[in-house]
Amino acid sequence: MSPATLRALTTRTLPAGALLLAVTGCSEDVRPSSPASAPGAAPHRAVTATAPPTPSDRNPSMNIRLTIDGHQIDATLNASAAARDFAALLPLTLNLSDFHQTERIADLPRRLSTSGAPDAAEARPGDLAYYAPWGNLALFYRGSGSSDKGLIILGHLNGGDTEHLAIATEVTIEAAS
What we know:
9-stranded antiparallel beta sheet, 2 helices
């Protein structure tokens, strides 16, 4: 999480947390042992506070569908900033070429955000990745065998269906319905 995001989150949640502590600390649930023991007294109602609801649009991952030379494959993007930025480009149709007999690569229309990305990642078969130094998408059909600086894993094919990637020439990527 970036310092700016952490600062914004703290600024929003700290006052709510202080209010929650104040309300729960000051609301003692004191009830008379029986209604007859406190004539004319109104019954005490316990005050409860609830945390603000979590927005439903904060999904940790996103389902997408790849159509590789006519064959559909489902995949899941992770919750990284780069994956969210990639999802904003969808739908995309890209021409693929082979790279080192391990991955199919394609140029993206623009560079993706690499905010908060790790320094290096090792790709596995079925990984969708962004190679930041070149600004391209990589679809791995074999493992890379090493950690590559600038390689950011965006997601993974569901079920590991990678045999179509080795000979693929075109991919269409869209949000799954």
